[in-house]
UniProtKB/TrEMBL annotation:
Source organism phylogeny: Bacteria, Bacillati, Actinomycetota, Actinomycetes, Micrococcales
Keywords of the record: DNA damage, DNA repair, Endonuclease, Hydrolase, Nuclease
This protein's name: Very short patch repair endonuclease
GO molecular function: endonuclease activity; hydrolase activity
Superkingdom, taxonomy of origin: Bacteria
Start and end residues of each stretch annotated as Disordered: 1-44
Keyword check for DNA repair: yes
Stretch forming the signal peptide: none
Presence of keyword GTP-binding: no
Gene Ontology biological process terms, A to Z: mismatch repair
Record-stated family: Belongs to the Vsr family.
Length: 184
């Protein structure tokens, strides 16, 4: 079962104050383009050299893969309620894929998806530079999510997915209900 893919009542064009809609116009004024075709200076754009690309690559490599704030809030709430689980646990039969919260006895996997990396329909944004590359990257992430869900379901596991912006107590309630349903 997949849950939490889009919050209830979510419609097109509903965004929080800090997030911009998918789409938008080209590069923001004064922002660098990392696209190799755009290495020259264009009006309002800064030329990018290899050093700048290395700085961006370094920053991206430091992005948290686990223990994000939304994940920690959900884990703390579940732990407070008496649940014990595995964290960042390898998924059965899938190399390089891991569950954020895994209840091995119940065969329940919980994923807390980030709005940017998993293309949230409400808060997902695209960088202004290298737009085509990012569209393909985020589409591949979403495709991998669906593949993971399907493969786990085929092997008898239940999957719950939630967006990072969902209230952590609501997420914990949904997880608790599913756990009770499975183990009764």
């Amino acid at each position: 079962m997949t849950s939490g893919l889009a919050p209830p009542g979510a419609g097109e064009g509903q965004l929080c104050r800090r997030c911009a809609p998918l789409g938008g116009s080209g590069p923001a004024e004064g922002r660098a383009s990392l696209n190799s075709k755009d290495r020259g200076t264009v009006e309002g754009e800064v030329a990018v050299d290899e050093e700048s690309a290395a700085v961006v690559a370094s920053r991206m490599s430091r992005q948290r893969r686990r223990d994000t704030e939304p994940e920690m809030l959900v884990r703390r709430e579940l732990h407070r309620r008496g649940y014990r689980f595995r964290v960042d646990h390898p998924l059965p039969g899938m190399v390089r894929r891991r569950g954020d919260i895994v209840f091995t006895r119940a065969h329940l996997v919980v994923m807390i998806d980030g709005c940017f990396w998993h293309a949230c329909p409400l808060h997902g944004t695209l960088p202004a530079t290298r737009r085509e590359w990012w569209e393909a990257k985020l589409a591949k992430n979403t495709e991998r999510d669906r593949d993971t869900d399907a493969r786990l379901t085929e092997t008898g596991w239940d999957v719950l997915r939630f967006w990072e912006h969902e209230p952590f107590k609501d997420v914990a309630d949904d997880i608790e209900a599913k756990y009770a349903e499975i183990l009764g």
